[in-house]
Amino acid sequence: MQTKPIVGIITSESSAFSGRQMLHSVGQRYVNAAMQFANVIPTLIPTCLSKKDLRGYITQLDGVLLTGGRANIEPHHFGGEKFPKDEIIDPARDYTALNLIRECSRLRIPIFGICRGIQEINVAYGGTLIYRVHERSDKKDHRMPQNDDATVEEIFKPRHIINLSRDSLLQSFLGQSQAVVNSLHGQGIDRIGDGLKVEAISEDGLVEAVSIEGYETFGIGIQWHAEFHPERVENYINKVLFQKFGMSCKEFQSKRLRTSV
Fold it and tell me: Which of 26, 233, 243, 252 shows the greatest Cβ crowding within 10 Å of its Cβ?
């Protein structure tokens, strides 16, 4: 009997208990949003899989969700300048995400990248990143509020306008040319990767969304956090994105099951 689509959600690697235990984890908001608004069954992708095992694993998936994360993608993946020693890194996540995107692209599996996820898509397609957007004179500060007492609501509230590109998928989804989104990132897209299309930009010209050109299924990355309360009216764009992603996963599942018979 056909069930809901199975979507793999990538995890990040971190330590707990004073470094005595390593964790493969993901924020609960991503899991909840995928279940409630994409109507899929989530499964977590550990970052310890070999390339061969990863290839076998994703043949059982109907979509992939690339989440945000504390660590930035290391610059050696895109020819950037070396990080300072105190920069948080996650080499296992870098390795897994980039291989995952390339394999999903080969199989045309639906991909939805959020925050770090859009940056991973861009790097996988040969693009580059800006390390600290707020240090660029032509860019605004896109980080979360820097005061320690900021509430969750303050951190995730819609903060700036994005302009949706003409003839973009986002514009066709929403029927409008602008939206207001949250902003919680330090890195951002610099040179866009080959085979990617700019879907939206912020008022200071920073890329806020991309799509994979000629992709038969859902292949979109966004710089903001769509997993935060998609049900709210002010976050309508987030709800639509998860719904469209879920529909694409369902279509992919139907095709996969037909061809496997």
Answer: 252
